[in-house]
Task: inverse folding
């Protein structure tokens, strides 16, 4: 088993390395870091600009392979992912933003899975009854709600609530209040700030799990082995939970694992609406500011998340399904 | 061990264990209310076995599911099912779950899907035990291992930890039986327990069921479509048709003096190993009625050759027959107005089902040696690599799916190819139909060696001569093509373009296989299973082939329909001088239709020869075991018959070492002396002829028992 994981990890590591280096060359071909300086007043001469860029290993006049060597040796020796065209450290940005994104994504993912799978089981065992139809209707609605709409609706509702109460119960912007200090106050502030974006993210993502789990479980509820389980003396409900659910949850687990990378960098709109500075925002910002090193770091991070997701998916499937052999 | 209970000797004086009265089940459907079960009543005593026989849609499975309380919520169930004084239909799911598994155990049809794939076999039995008994996990596990041992699973200790996918079909069915008897139930319901299994495994499973019944003293409801299985295991038999019991009697009485024309039709429609002189089967015309808005008439009237006007006026009740024998303990009753007139399958000396006249086979007039060969296989071998690893696959072994087989088929002759699943029958067919040179050996079709077929035209010329009929009549016809298009396709493929000619040819083809040419614009869904198989045969005949390859052509059909298709095949052979390569697992069918038969085991032919010679005087121990495993639809013969029960399952054909492939399961091998045994293990037996001409076998010591047990 360990050998299998190690082999997989090596394979994925190579994949990440290839993807990252490829992105580096592509980003250098398309992005023009110099544009960050052309709008400055007083105008800089090209020589001045190039001089500034040289400081951050972005000088377009330097041969690309030289720049690449500088960049890659920085990563390998100091794990230094370079600097933005204006001198900011990519490492600092990413380290901070992963934390912010994680806070946003993990909570909503866990909630979405619990709610989605729970609803899937609940509605599948009541197929075509009123509860099934109502929940399914709601899920189809939420599934089709654009995240901007969901986020803004949540914001509007929260503002209305805050106004009705007369104080700011639920803050609608930022990841934490700027004026708190100390561990517990910061923790409390972060938690309250996370409530609204988590609700909006959960709302748009739970439906996928609900509909998937429902249809998978329905395939299994009428299967012969659930019938056998009932013939042994389990009630219908017990048979569904013990025999139907575990078999049908395997594909859902795989989907969750693979959804993680998309979640980390894909929550752009939610982050924007709630003014959170996470990886999603960084992703768009680095592209619009021609931040070559930032773009490459985001790509590398995405590849790493995919790798972790894939390995997790493998592990989950092996743990749940004895038919899968690892060799 | 399971607590032994005395089996009641005089059940008639006892209170019945299970008492079903006027059970009715209806389902809503798009076309209206489907009355799947329409008033079924029966009593069942401890230790007795009731066989319920009927074709698909007759309501036999629905009856058993109603007893188990496993029907979906939308089913409307009325009547009463009394088990030990309690009406099970009144219980809700929670209370019914105390009865299921504890007092009633159930065995299902498909062992491949009836075990949860992600739990070990042992833990599934432990669960069955712990639901109803308050025992520790360790004790339950020990008991589970004992149960597995009881149902004949070798190394139960180790195997209990195995998962369902590591078990063969027969082994899984044993595990299901172990689960069903885990709590020592009063009643075991077996719903087609052996239908999905090979005949040798079927014999083993029926044996295990008998053991289980003996150990628990339980009553058994045995649901099956196979009259042979019923004859061997039931005390009483109930024949169901269109949701009702149409005949009920003790097993001996029913088989010796059936009174209801449907029962008689069923018995006439099955090919029988023990009655080989019969030329043609008697099919029951038509199809069962749809169970929606049935009129008040005998539901069998439309198919009954002995129908009278009165039959269409009111549905007859199941009534006791005066003078009906009391042999098996229960009285003989039938739901037929004319039951009293019917005697020995005849009314007033006239058989109810006239035996259709068989056509003279012109080809058979010429001696076999003088007829041309339409197919010849010599030393044909097909292997598959066994690979390991994901990205970089490496070969770790070879599966010898077909391992050097020789056979030939002459004009106007049927060769039956039989063997258990996995023995290489289908691979052989695919090798033939591929029309490419085999890995080793040679295939020649109508005198042309496939190795010489290089050009497209050559291949299509040979392709015309050899056509195939498939097993599943639904899956092998495109549902979006009309019958006309289906039949026109092969004609167009061989260059027929003229619409008028096509139309005429298709009309001829449809008439040839007994379909109404008016129906040419219908889609396959509009036809019944038997009619679809006729379309499949017509399609194969479109190019006027000389050889038809038939892969299990009747195994998906009901018995009464199957007979019609078999008769059609026999007629076509006689009329068109066709040759057949007929692959089937049902030896009775093969025996009925074949002139010669080849028995395959693990990729090799172990016995080949004239059908009568092979079936009357089987020489290879495997052939003997196969033949003795077939249940005969004759209760007396079933009881007295000596069985050769094979142990275990088909091993996997991954080694090509010399030696007889059958050694691991051979009953004869065990009786041999050590040097003889060494010969079996070390020298591959070749097909050899003995005194009679057309009969070869591949066994070193076939002589030793040839006369002993026949």
Result:
């Amino acid at each position: 088993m360990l050998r299998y994981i190690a082999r997989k990890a090596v394979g994925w590591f190579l994949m990440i390395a290839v993807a990252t280096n490829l992105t580096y060359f592509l980003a250098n071909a398309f992005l023009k870091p110099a544009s960050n300086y052309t709008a400055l007043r007083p105008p800089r001469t090209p020589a001045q600009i190039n001089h500034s860029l040289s400081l951050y290993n972005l000088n377009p006049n330097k041969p690309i392979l030289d720049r690449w060597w500088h960049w890659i040796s920085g990563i390998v020796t100091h794990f230094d992912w370079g600097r933005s065209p204006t001198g900011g450290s990519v490492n600092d940005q990413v380290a901070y933003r992963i934390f912010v994104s994680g806070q946003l994504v993990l909570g909503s993912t866990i909630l979405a899975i619990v709610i989605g799978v729970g609803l899937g089981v609940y509605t599948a065992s009541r197929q075509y009854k009123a509860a099934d139809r109502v929940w399914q209707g709601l899920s189809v609605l939420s599934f089709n709600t654009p995240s901007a709409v969901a986020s803004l609706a949540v914001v509007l509702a929260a503002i209305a609530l805050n106004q009705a109460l007369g104080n700011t119960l639920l803050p609608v912007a930022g990841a934490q209040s700027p004026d708190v200090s100390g561990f517990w106050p910061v923790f409390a502030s972060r938690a309250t700030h996370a409530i609204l974006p988590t609700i909006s993210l959960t709302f748009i993502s739970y439906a996928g799990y609900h509909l998937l789990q429902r249809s998978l479980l329905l395939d299994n509820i009428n299967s012969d082995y659930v019938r056998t389980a009932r013939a042994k003396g389990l009630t219908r409900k017990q048979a569904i939970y013990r025999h139907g659910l575990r078999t049908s949850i395997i594909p859902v687990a795989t989907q969750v694992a693979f959804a993680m990378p998309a979640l980390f960098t894909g929550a752009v709109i939610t982050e924007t609406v709630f003014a959170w500075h996470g990886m999603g925002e960084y992703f768009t910002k680095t592209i619009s500011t021609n931040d070559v090193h930032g773009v490459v770091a985001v790509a590398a991070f995405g590849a790493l998340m995919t790798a972790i997701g894939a390995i997790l998916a493998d592990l989950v499937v092996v743990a749940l399904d004895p038919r899968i052999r690892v060799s | 061990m399971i607590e032994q209970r005395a089996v009641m000797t005089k059940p008639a004086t006892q209170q019945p264990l299970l008492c079903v009265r006027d059970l009715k089940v209806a389902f809503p459907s798009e076309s209206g209310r489907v009355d799947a079960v329409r008033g079924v009543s029966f009593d069942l005593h401890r230790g007795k076995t009731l066989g319920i026989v009927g074709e698909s849609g007759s309501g036999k499975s629905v009856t058993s599911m109603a007893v188990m309380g496993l029907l979906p919520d939308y089913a409307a169930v009325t009547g009463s099912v009394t088990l030990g004084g309690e009406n099970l239909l009144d219980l809700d799911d929670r209370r019914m779950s105390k009865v299921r598994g504890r007092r009633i155990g159930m065995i299902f049809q498909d062992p491949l899907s009836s075990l949860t794939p992600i739990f070990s076999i042992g833990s599934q039995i432990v669960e069955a035990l712990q639901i109803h008994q308050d025992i520790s996990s360790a004790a339950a596990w020990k008991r589970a291992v004992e149960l597995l041992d009881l149902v004949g699973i070798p190394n139960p200790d180790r195997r209990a930890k195995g998962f369902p996918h590591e078990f063969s079909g027969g082994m899984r069915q044993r595990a299901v039986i172990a689960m069903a008897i885990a709590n020592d139930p009063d009643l075991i319901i077996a719903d087609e327990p052996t239908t999905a299994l090979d005949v040798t495994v079927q014999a083993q499973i029926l044996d295990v069921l008998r053991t289980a019944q003996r150990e628990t003293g339980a009553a058994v409801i045995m649901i099956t479509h196979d009259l042979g299985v019923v004859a061997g295991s039931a005390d009483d038999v109930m024949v169901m048709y269109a949701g009702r019991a149409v005949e009920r009697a003790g097993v001996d009485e029913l088989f010796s003096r059936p009174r209801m024309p449907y029962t008689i039709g069923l018995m006439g429609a099955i090919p029988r190993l023990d009655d080989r002189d019969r030329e043609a089967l008697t099919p029951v015309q038509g199809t069962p009625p749809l169970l929606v808005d049935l009129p008040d008439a005998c539901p069998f009237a439309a198919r009954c050759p002995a129908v009278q006007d009165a039959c269409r006026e009111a549905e007859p009740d199941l009534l006791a027959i005066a003078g009906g024998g009391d042999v098996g303990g229960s009285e003989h009753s039938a739901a037929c107005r004319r039951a009293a007139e019917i005697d020995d399958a005849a009314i007033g000396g006239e058989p109810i089902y006239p035996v259709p006249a068989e056509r003279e086979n012109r080809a058979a007039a010429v001696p076999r040696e003088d007829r041309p060969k339409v197919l010849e296989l010599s030393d044909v071998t097909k292997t598959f690599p066994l690979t390991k690893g994901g990205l970089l696959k490496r070969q770790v072994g070879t599966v010898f799916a077909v391992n050097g087989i020789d056979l030939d088929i002459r004009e106007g002759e049927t060769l039956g190819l039989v063997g258990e699943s996995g023995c290489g029958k289908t691979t052989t067919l695919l090798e033939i139909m591929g029309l490419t040179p085999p890995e080793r050996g040679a295939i020649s079709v109508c005198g042309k060696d496939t190795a010489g077929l290089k050009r497209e035209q050559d291949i299509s010329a040979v392709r015309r001569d050899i056509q195939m009929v498939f097993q599943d009549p639904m899956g092998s016809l495109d549902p979006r093509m009309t019958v006309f298009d289906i039949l026109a396709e092969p004609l167009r493929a061989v260059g027929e373009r003229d619409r008028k000619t096509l139309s005429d040819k298709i009309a001829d083809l449809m008439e040839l296989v007994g379909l109404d040419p008016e129906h040419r614009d219908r889609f396959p869904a509009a036809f019944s299973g038997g009619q679809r198989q006729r379309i499949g045969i017509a399609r194969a005949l479109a190019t006027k082939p000389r050889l038809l390859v038939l892969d299990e052509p009747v195994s998906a059909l009901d018995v009464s329909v199957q007979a019609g298709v078999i008769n059609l095949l026999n007629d076509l052979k006689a009329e068109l001088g066709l040759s057949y390569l007929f692959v089937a697992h049902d030896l009775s069918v093969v025996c009925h239709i074949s002139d010669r038969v080849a028995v395959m085991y693990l990729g090799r032919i172990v016995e080949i020869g004239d059908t009568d010679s092979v079936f009357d005087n089987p020489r290879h121990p495997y052939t003997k075991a196969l033949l003795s495993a077939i249940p005969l639809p004759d209760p007396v013969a079933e009881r007295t018959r000596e069985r050769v029960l094979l142990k275990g399952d088909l091993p996997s054909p991954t080694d090509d070492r010399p030696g007889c492939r059958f050694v691991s399961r051979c009953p004869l091998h065990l009786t041999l002396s050590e040097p003889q045994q060494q010969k079996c293990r070390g020298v591959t037996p070749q097909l050899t002829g003995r005194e009679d001409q057309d009969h070869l076998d591949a066994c070193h010591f076939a002589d030793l028992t040839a006369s002993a047990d026949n």
